[in-house]
Amino acid sequence: MRLANKVAIVTGGGSGFGEGIAHTFAREGANVVVADLREDAAERVAAAIRDAGGRARAVRADVSREADTEAMREAALATFGDVHIVVNNAGTTHRNKPILEVAEDEFDRVYAVNVKSIYWSARAFIPHFRRRGGGVFVNIASTAGIRPRPGLVWYNGSKGAVITASKAMAAELGPDNIRVNCVNPVIGATALLEEFMGMPDTPENRARFLATIPMGRMSTPQDVANACLYLASDEAAFITGTCIEVDGGRCV
């Protein structure tokens, strides 16, 4: 097993990409803390992992809050005794619409969840990783941070910030044996799909977006989880500061 005896925290683990990551890590031997804003969703995923023979704990967490981020760490330490891997997956977006129609509260929420969460994660886990001699951050950014679409200006910017911050963290934390990498999915069939499209989720509207992806489909939770698994594993021991596009060629 590629993550045997490791302890991983997955934020936004109650659905979508995060759910896929949590299940994949558990199948590969990790003890998983499933953190989500919706406690019932986190518990559903954690229960499914346990039913399959894995080890998991659910935690309710708003990743834009320092106290909640610290509570995730403490829950992992109390239950499993360590933290080796943090997957910062939780994210949100404003609806796809013209730049001047995005309200200030929408902007603030996008940056709090997508960017400030990385700040709180760094503050909560870097001291722990330094004490234990290393650790891994996998930050879920987006192809939007590399090849932005119109109508998602501030979301695009937030994911660009995640990418740049991750590279800067990798440069600074390398001497501490702390690796920091990104995974950049393309659009997926998650709860945010209609917000990203800015229109109803119909086969016709999906086709408009799929036409921009050379391989002709969306990212799946398993696609994203496979990339995260590699970056979190010891196979990637000398890989830091990189981004893996899981996008079917969207960014080519």
Can you characterise this structure?
The relative contact order is 0.15. The chain has eight helices and seven strands; from the N terminus they run E-H-E-H-E-H-E-H-E-H-E-H-H-H-E. Helix 1 links the parallel strand 1 and strand 2. The protein starts with 6 loop residues before the first strand and ends in a 6-residue tail after the last strand. It is globular and about 50 Å long. The mean pLDDT is 97. Helix content is 46%, strand content 15%. The protein has a single domain, classed as Rossmann fold, CATH 3.40.50.720. A seven-stranded parallel sheet has the order 3-2-1-4-5-6-7, sandwiched between helices. It has 252 residues and is of the alpha/beta class. GO terms for molecular function: oxidoreductase activity. Belongs to the short-chain dehydrogenases/reductases (SDR) family. Its EC number is 1.1.1.-.
